[in-house]
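Fold it.
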Amino acid sequence: MAKITFSNQNNDFYQSLKTSVEEYFSKNNIKKTGDWRLFSKTIILVIIAVAMYALLILAPLNAWQGIICCAVLGATLASIGFNIMHDANHGSYSANTKLNDFLGLSLNAMGASSYFWKQKHNIIHHTYTNVDGIDDDIAKSPVIRQCETQKWVPAHKVQHLYLLPVYSLSPIFWVFIMDFTKYFKRKIYTTTAWKMSTKNHIIFWLTKVFYLAVYIVLPIKVWGFLPWLAGYFVMNATMGLILSLVFQLAHVVEITEFEHVPLDMTKHIETAWAEHQMKTTANFAMTNKFINWYVGGLNFQVEHHLFPKVSHIHYPAISKILMEKCKEFNVPYNKFDTMGEAVASHFRMMIQLGKKPAQQMPQVQAA
């Protein structure tokens, strides 16, 4: 794999920020993990998800009622991913590691692998954010071109027109293609995956069997193939659109920056790691209480990247401290006032990246 090193200089910003954040938690006698706000959300979201599934399997619904239940189920599963799975797999849901591990399996309940998520997201993405050649989250080429250093193909001219269908299908790709690709290749994009334990192998295959039984076999028996197919698509399209857009708005927008390192090469970034996170990450709709509740604080993505071990319920408070530090140390703080502005910026960027470049950049090729 390519290698990236960050500057060890100019760390005053991050050290001062960490000190102030630690003082905030200490002075207010607050734990960095979740509290009743997160726990109540967990109960509400799980109840809604179970209720929607139970209605679909047990209740005599007509076609439109079934479609509505599938859409609500998809939206609820997305929120469970944002709130429960994300905090748990970062170890910030609870101080109890066993509870974190258990709730982290909520991703497996949706058919994906929490094991691969931790490697791909927690380690690779959070360390090498927006580094083309390492960060798997921006490795959608040649289907989608997400930064200037990625290879351009003619289809990219209209990528902004097929973005939403691709995002809609992303959960299906994830469950049936990307997980298996990582499993059998033992590689996450260009990073060689570490050895899986017997326990992780068993969990991986049990997850896939569970998914087939709960989301495919049983619903087909209840509804028949075509009605199931329609509902299955609606559920995944709703979940995929929401998940994809929220994560894209954090990094693939006009105000964020990218780095590039060709395969098997080493690159030294002249800024410290924390400043790199500030340049490559953006917030949106920070004052919108509903969005903040629904997306699990992932509209405060800047704070999350600097403090991934802190539960998202604390990000609004930390953001005030961070903005003051950014002013003090002249560090950029990327944000959009509304989600609509962030979505518009993402699509403008996709249109711009779809234009044929004057010259192709050296390309990254995953083995």
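The first strand starts at residue 3 and ends at 6.
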